[in-house]
Amino acid sequence: MFDFTSVQMQAWVASFIWPFFRITAFLVASPLLGHTAIPHKVKLALGVFLTVLIAPLLPPIPSIPVFSMAGLGLIIEQMLIGIAIGLCMRMVFSVVQAAGEFIGMQMGLGFATSYSPDIGSSSVIISKFLYQITLLMFLAFSGHLVVMELLLDTFRILPIGGVPLNPGAWKLMALYAGTIFSTGLLLALPLIAALLLMNLAMGILNRSAPQLTVFAIGFPLTLTVGLVLMMVMMTSFGPFLERLFFSGFEFIKVMLAALGEKRV
Known about the structure:
Radius of gyration: 24 Å
Shape: elongated
Strand content: under 5%
Strand order of the largest sheet: 1-2
Structural class: mainly alpha
Largest sheet: 2 strands, antiparallel
C-alpha cells in the first residue's frame, strides 16, 4: 500500500493549485480562448490539462498552507498575473475593433450594430467583421501557441511565491491601452480621409447644383466607396496584423519583466 502524510498531500495540492489559478485566469481573460462561445467547462478542463502538464516542470513551490490568508493572497497574485497577460492580448484585438468602429461610423453604418457577447455590448458590424478576421489571422500566425509559451515562461520570470508584484507595471499596462485609439485610428485613417474628401466634394456639389439630389445618392455612394476602399485595405491588413501581434508579444515580455522588478 502507498502511505503518505498530510504534509505530502498538502505539497501535492499546492503544486497544482497555484499554477492552476494563473493559467485559468489567463484562459478566462484572453480574447481567443476566453471567448463566450467556448463553454466554461471546456476552459476549466483545458486549465486542468495544462496544469497537469507543467506542474512537474515548475520550480520548487513555497510551503504555504492553501487554506490560509497567505494562501489566499498567493491565489490572488497568480490570478492577477494571468489576467494581466489576457488583458494585454485583448488590447491588441481592441485596436482592430476600434478601427472598425471608426470606419463604420464614417461609412454611415453607425446604425448597423449587433450585440457582441465577447465585449458585452453592441458594436458596429464592420468592427465585428474585422475582429473575426483578426481571430483567424491570429490562429494562422500561431499566435495562440506563442501566447501559451509566454504564459508558461511566466513561471520562470515570476516564480510562485517569489518576489511581490511591482505596482508600477500596472501603470505601464494602463499607458499601453492608449494604443487602442492611436493604432486603431492609424489603421482607419486612409479610409476616413478618403471618405471625408468625398463628403466634402458632395457638399460642394450640393451647394453649386441644388437641383441634384445629393442626399439621395450620398449614402449608397459612401457605402460603395467605403467597401471598395476596405477591399484595397485588405491587401495590407495581414502585414499590419503581424506587426500588431509582434508588438503585443513584446509588450507582454516588458510587462512581465516590470512585474518582477524589485521595489526600492
